[in-house]
Amino acid sequence: MAEFSAFLALLNSILWHNYVLYTLVATGVVFTVWSGFSQYRALTHGPAIVRGVYDNPDDPGAINHFQALSAALSATVGLGNIGGVALAIALGGPGAVFWMWVIGFLGMGIKLTEVTLSMLYRNTDDPDNPHGGPMWVVSKALERRNMKGLGRTIGVIFCVTLLVSTATGGNMFQAWNVAELTQEYFSVPSWMTGIVLAIVVGAVIIGGIKRIGKVAGTLVPFMVLLYLLAGTYVLAVNISEIPAIFALIVKSAFVPTEAAGAFIGGTAASAFLFGLKRAAFSNEAGQGSSPIAHAAAKTDEPAREGIVAGLEPFIDTIVVCTFTALIILSTGIWNRGPDVAFDHTAVAAQTDSGWQFVATDLAGDDWRDGDKVILVVQAHTNDDGFDRHKIEGTVHAGSTGYSVHWDAFIGLTEPVVVGNGFYRVYIGATLTAKAFDSVTPGLGKWLVTIAAWLFAISTMISWSYYGEQGMVFLAGEKSVLSYKVVYCVLIIIATLGFVKTDADLDNITGIGTALMLFANIPICWFFGYQAMRAYKDYIARLKSGRMGPGHPPPNLDDLLSGRDVK
Predict the structure, then answer these.
(1) What is the 3-state secondary structure (H, E, C) of 296-363?
(2) How far lies 474's CA from each of 155, 184, 395, in Å?
(3) What does the DSSP 8-state code read for residue 84?
(4) Which residues of the chain have pLDDT under 70?
(5) Exposure pattern of 384-406 as b/e (b: 16+ CB <10 Å)?
(6) Are the CB atoms for 406 and 412 separated by under 8 Å?
(7) How confident is the model at residue 24, as a pLDDT?
(8) What is the full DSSP assignment across 167-194?
(9) What is the pLDDT of residue 566?
């Protein structure tokens, strides 16, 4: 298991090199400026489109704008908003939230671009079952330039990265979080949760995009409203803390955050890294996933659906993720004191394998064999400039009760326990649930568990469709049934307990996200000018009143070729 964790960490460090993050930010800046800050149009014109003002049942597509937005949001507004934000703060500190805001804002411009491109090149041979996404963009765009083989090859590469991300972040991350949370609060074995999730998700995805659109259109508004109402209650209780929390977020984005309680300290660089990584995972800007859902929308105006897509990062990151962050930070759960106190001072002895703490006997019966706990110690200065470290412990069941066996600590300096106690491991969504519980005992147990189930199911059904479209591009319609079976099996596999720490969880989801960025961002850079042309033409016609009945959209070939559109 240690070797697996080390491999994940190494691969993640390569894929998430700082230059990858710089490229993502630069892409957002370029398309934000190029579009004339399209975020404004997304927030002002977008709601009118979603309300159905411009709906036409005769347009090609399978679902309306609201259902397309809901389907895409059901993939983005998920456990990344509950568990992902908690991971970002636990690993990068409060400053990570600031960088989540940045990528949320810039992501609105990226979403506009990639979705408009997808609408320009989507396959509508069957108007009721359209296909779209970056794989269709690059294959059809290069085919127009007599490079069909190259286009197909790049499309295949994107689909492979899509399937990796579908299996990890879109599926296994969701299932694992729900299973952990349900086991933590209700002692339901993780594998049983996996089976239930597989059955529910399977029942929905069999019906295809129309059923997914209907389920998402009902589920997403309800679950977001439920979560925001509960979050508002928690924030109202801690209202006096909110101004200081915002100041802490901004300050920590640029200066180191000192160690406190369960938090061992974070640099501005770690805040930047984990904030951008978790925001990119949550709102999917630049990944090329959302365009697959939006491609099913009924419209003959490519830029119109791009404007709708611009609402996604705003709702997902700037609204929902911020709520989660404020809840975690205002309750102090992220830097809490020890959950379990030692009866006597714990002292480490130096051994051949490193510094070793003796096994710790545990009181109470609310432990499970294999539970993970953390000991925070003070020792040598680490690479980030802090002298705090975490030592992992594993709970073992014995004939006389439970005890913790601690891992050896490697270092020349003797580790000294900070706080004379240790911490239960609350990973992802479980940490958020504990934040709710700290305000009203039991609130997190029920609210976050219900929200996690709803968020996870909605995310998994939408991501199943994304992966399905990748399989259609790779192997045709005949591959879909086998793919759906494998997808549901992966849900169960994810709940069998091979992921144990928040670092492993971050690494697994980060790999899938990074691979998609590597494949899709170049597509946006090479063909984004076409999306900008279509968007600016749309806005010009909107401003001049040449929109709606009596004003047909421009010829698609004119938009792609750049010929003047009258």
Answers:
(1) CECCCCHHHHHHHHCHHHHHHHHHHHHHHHHHHHHHCHHHCCCCEECCCCCCEEEECCEEEECCEEEC
(2) 9, 40, 46
(3) I
(4) 1-2, 4, 78-79, 209, 281, 498-506, 509, 548-551, 555-556, 558-566
(5) eebbbbbbebebbeeeeebbbeb
(6) no
(7) 87
(8) HIIIIIHHHHHHHHHHHHHH---HHHHH
(9) 45
Query: Quick check: 170 and 162 in contact, CB under 8 A?
Result: no
Residue 565: per-residue pLDDT: 44
| DSSP string for residues in 393-411 | EEEEEETTEEEEEEPPB-S
Phi, psi values for residue 394, rounded to 5°: -120, 130
Q: Taking a C-beta distance cutoff of 8 angstroms, is the pair 130, 294 a contact?
A: no
Amino acid code (one letter) for 73: L
Cβ within 8 Å of residue 564, ≥6 positions away: 558
The residues, ordered by sequence, that sit 6+ positions from 538 with a Cβ below 8 Å of its Cβ are: 301, 303, 304, 307
pLDDT for res 487? 96
What are the backbone dihedrals phi and psi of residue 100, each rounded to the nearest 5 degrees, phi first?
-65, -40
* Number of Cβ atoms within 10 Å of the Cβ of 347: 12
Tokens linked to 496: 């069998």
Cβ-based neighbours of 239, under 8 Å, separated by 6 or more:
none
| Spatial distance between the Cα atoms of 138 and 521, rounded to a whole number of angstroms | 12
The pair of structure tokens assigned to 426 is: 């609350």
Residue holding tokens 């090329």?
288
* The pLDDT of residue 530: 94
Return the pLDDT at 564.
47
pTM greater than 0.70: yes
Distance of alpha carbon 153 from alpha carbon 150, whole angstroms: 5
Nearest to 82 by CA among 332, 430, 362, 416: 430
Domain span(s) for CATH 1.20.1740.10 in the chain: 19-336+433-548
CA distance 266 to 533: 43
Exposed/middle/buried for residue 79 (C-beta within 10 Å: 0-12, 13-18, 19+): buried
Domain 19-336+433-548 architecture:
Up-down Bundle (1.20)
